[in-house]
From TrEMBL:
<dbReference type="InterPro" id="IPR010982">
    <property type="entry name" value="Lambda_DNA-bd_dom_sf"/>
</dbReference>
<protein>
    <submittedName>
        <fullName>Uncharacterized protein</fullName>
    </submittedName>
</protein>
<dbReference type="GO" id="GO:0003677">
    <property type="term" value="F:DNA binding"/>
</dbReference>
Length: 283
């Protein structure tokens, strides 16, 4: 059966959100009114048009709860009904994780949209159970809070750089080459600090998206910028060990998956090198 047009999913989501607002309900209340009840994760995904497997039965449940127009059912007549069409185990696990984190007081300052997306990223991912997903969500929230001040630390880098370049040109015009050189050296230090902050922010974003593969690629690219020629292999091995140790200590599955991706990169390099050596021997 054909998939439902993404534009229809988005339009239905907007209709659900609008009707919910007209009733004065939050997502939790709507979830309780739907029969049988559902959690915030499913409500949020539907409202954002992100429930790709949505079928006519689930649409009907929301239509009845919100008294939506019956014409919405016609748009989902050909939608395939699968195990993903209704509320999934991953969505229920995500809601339970968020309930637990809220009881513990670790979600302060984070929006509902952020929390729901974050929890579902990990319960939908390759975590073996809800407990490991919970640990990863909690760690991601902690990293997010820790990295919130990066924007303020970095400042308006482009404007600052442009102003400095004008100052350098003026100093050179005045013949003050030494002062211009000193300012350039200071700017180099600042740019390196900004680059480090940018790198940390990117790694934090990889964690929020549950993409240890991208984090590993980023870490290796950074090693190439820093390590001496021929030293990247051993630097990668050392970095993989560090991420593994950190992951073991904190029960952090994301860190362990990053370590695995780093180790796999080295393994693939070594395997490729042996294959080339073997080919060379037979030529």
């Amino acid at each position: 059966m054909p998939k439902v047009d993404p534009e229809i999913l988005k339009a239905f989501g907007k209709a659900v959100k609008r009707a919910r607002a007209m009733h004065g309900w939050d997502q939790t209340t709507l979830g309780r009114v739907v029969k049988p009840p559902v959690g915030n994760s499913l409500v949020s995904k539907i409202e954002k048009g992100q429930k790709e497997a949505l079928d006519i039965r689930t649409v009907g449940r929301f239509r009845n709860a919100l008294d939506l127009d019956e014409s919405w059912l016609d748009k989902f007549l050909d939608a395939e009904e699968t195990a993903e069409s209704g509320e999934t185990r991953a969505e229920r696990d995500a809601d339970q994780i968020l309930d637990r984190l809220q009881r513990e007081g670790t979600t302060e300052g984070a929006s509902d949209d952020l929390l729901i997306r974050l929890a579902n990223n990990f319960t939908d991912g390759d975590h073996k159970d809800r407990e490991t997903a919970y640990t990863s969500v909690r760690r991601a929230l902690a990293e997010l809070a820790r990295n919130k001040d990066i924007a303020a630390l970095a400042g308006n880098a482009d404007a600052q750089f442009a102003a400095l370049m004008q100052q350098i040109d003026q100093l050179n015009d005045d013949g003050d080459f030494d002062e211009a050189a000193r300012l350039l050296d200071d700017e180099q230090d600042r740019l390196e600090q900004v680059a480090d902050l940018h790198h940390k922010k990117q790694l934090n974003q990889d964690r929020l998206r549950n993409r240890p593969d991208l984090a590993a690629q980023r870490l290796i690219a950074d090693l190439y910028r820093q390590a001496p020629a021929g030293g990247v292999f051993w630097a990668t091995e050392s970095l993989a060990k560090k991420w593994q140790d950190d992951g073991d200590k904190a029960g952090d599955m994301f860190a362990l998956h990053v370590a695995l991706a780093l180790a796999k990169t080295n393994y693939d390099k070594a395997k490729g090198k042996k294959a080339l050596e073997a080919a060379a021997l037979h030529t």
